[in-house]
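Why show two proteins at once? Because comparison is the fastest way to build intuition. When a single record is shown, students tend to memorize it. When two are placed side by side, the eye starts asking what differs. So, the first record is below.
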Amino acid sequence: MITRQVESVVIQRLTETTPAVVLLGPRQVGKTTLARRIADQWPTGSVYLDMERPADRRRLDDADTYLRTQTGKLVVIDEIHRMPGLFEILRGIIDDYRAAGQRYGHFLLLGSAALDLMQQSAESLAGRVAYIEMGPISITEAVSETENTLWTRGGFPESLLASSDTNSLDWRIDFIRSYLERDVPMFAPRMPAETIKRLWTMLAHQQGSMLNQARLAASLGISAPTVIRYIDLLVDLQLVRRLHPWSGNLGKRLVKSPKVYVRDSGIVHALLGLRQWNDVLGHPVAGLSYEGFVIENLIQAAAQNTQVPRLATYYRTQDGAEIDLVFERAGQPEMAIEIKGSSAPSVERGFHIACEDLEMKQRYVVYPGTETFPLREGVQAMGLKDLVVKLGES
């Protein structure tokens, strides 16, 4: 069992701040395993319901009556997006619990489509629910695996812990196929799965590039608005990340297009047919694949620190000044991060100019090493794991 850092966040929210938690994440990322682990240890007992099982769905034919009989227990409802009508019922039950002084720890809801689920629940559970995102296994959680293995295979548990690189790649290929055959028709029945796969593969080839919907549309033979809808679906399923540009007012000409990343590096490599670490290193996507891998780990670490909420963006001007990842807090840029795939990292002038533009005090270069050492103009070179730990603690 790999200990997931999000577990303590879920438990804290359920026991101290909110009656319900929605745990969001792509399929096979470990949500059900985590939920069962929390439920098994819940001091007042628990009930687990899977909305993909007909027997569990029948138990909720009269959902209001059934759920009220579970008073005092933690009720876990998996794949809740399959029964959106439950949210109105949960609202009434939660309000009655609150009136009776039972304010915390009643429902743990699991779902795979972030935006769709948040919209469904926000209409009924506003102010009654906390949203927590669970991503693939991070570098601080994969204690028995090397950084290169995690980068190559990605953070989905079945892929990372497979007995061989071949078995890991086979699992990821099956994972991609299952999304195209199952989830795309369920969440977007009018979107052709084959076109979604082609788009997904094109995004892997262009990992970390600025979004150019016109070029993608021309390659796919569809309209630019359709490309945006398809990307919206992949973002909603938490398979793709749109990293938006920093948008403050500096009187400079800023690039305004988002960057697009396939979120899990193992899925990037599967879409490109890369089996082993050496295959990845020899491919043109290697540098941007590592960049995406680092960005996902850092954003996940920042999200776990609920005491220091941060927004992630990137910074680029038309003159070439650029920062790969900017963390801002309360609207103010706080941390600048450059990502280098070399074991002997150096920093271009554009990074220093961008840091001066934003008056950055914390400046880091992440590289595939373990030592921390200073570079010029206040920049520190640091390994990914050390910076992830710093983000979680600061």
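Second record. Ask yourself what differs from the first in the token line.
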Amino acid sequence: MKISIIGTGYVGLVSGTCFAEMGVITSCLDIDENKIENLKKGIMPIWEPGLETMVKRNFDKNRLSFTTDIFESIKNAEAVFIAVGTPPEEDGSADLQYVLKVAKEIGKNMDHYMVIITKSTVPIGTAEKVRTVISKELKDRNASIEFDVASNPEFLKEGDAIDDCLHPDRIVVGTDSERAKDIIDRLYKPFVLNGHPIIYMDIPSAELTKYTANALLATKISFMNDIANFCEIVGADINSVRRGIGTDKRIGPYFIYAGTGYGGSCFPKDVKAIIKTADEKGYSLEILKSVERVNNRQKETLYHKLIKHFNGNIKGKKVALWGLSFKPNTDDMREAPALVLIDKLISEGVNVFAYDPVAMEEAKRILGNKIEYVNEPYKALENADALMLVTEWTEFRILNYPKMQNMKEKLILDGRNIYDPEEVRQQGFVYYSIGRK
């Protein structure tokens, strides 16, 4: 069985590699010639645990190939996945220009039946737009070629994407065709041997399922951050509250940790997009609008704690920042809380010295020389007035207090609540966290 994956970004590359791992002949296409040549050499465009090894293994076994030629990529393919970016427009809506360009190229080059599957996160109605574009191209060619469209949203967590793809909780598919369903059943059979289901539904429901999942998870995060801020006012401890509610089976222990807000390529973009889609349909998603407001505010919380500690005067201070990526185990800095925090600090004349295990090059690409970069976390602490923990990488979990004695001020602002307040204070540090006494 052969498939084509169009787009070698995060979703396309991970999905294509995992299909190849299961024995599917997979062609990954991208218009970026440099990226394709690098992939052939085993050079990854993203950092994801386990991905490089798996790409090299399947490329060497000729199950995974990379090309810029769409005709070559879709030749003999039974399924073609569209996995290109859908970045947010200024008004929050998803930009579909890349999805529809791909649909147009498919229509120009296809020569046999195939099922075209949207893997990108797209608003309701996108599959029908894809169908319309392909049909027009076939009509212009006077080509009578049957095809189907389907929606198959991804549910990959950055940092755990390989495991999520190979061992999915569920696979959601929207289709109105039994022929397409048969192909998708064969394609995904190796992935559901663990008993987890393929959930079939109509196409609009599948498109909405992805947005709803991310919007609900974002809601849990913002809700807990809101409660954490309230805890500080009334003298409660958010960790105790979290444990108290997390044992309730109706709530569960996941996504109820307080912190500096959510970021990344999915939650911010998808919350904006579903809000915009609803507005266009004349309905206001009030809860999600509040979720977005709370999250934007939460990204500034460490900055406000710093301001308060120094009585409003932080100009010329040196702050060490640990963690730049929006979460551990990725170099992704899209919508990262660190970016908001850095902008606020720089605007007040603060000197920022930053360290991240894998996101340093990405930070340099985004921030340039606005901040100082160090290659070892404790080096950032030399004469620092404060340490801000922004991303909870495992290497930050245990503090080496002797290495912290060269700080000018013994001040820690823990944006992820990973340190024990009593232990830190016994070492002579002033300690702030999120929603704890």
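One difference worth noting in the second protein: The chain has a mean pLDDT of 96.
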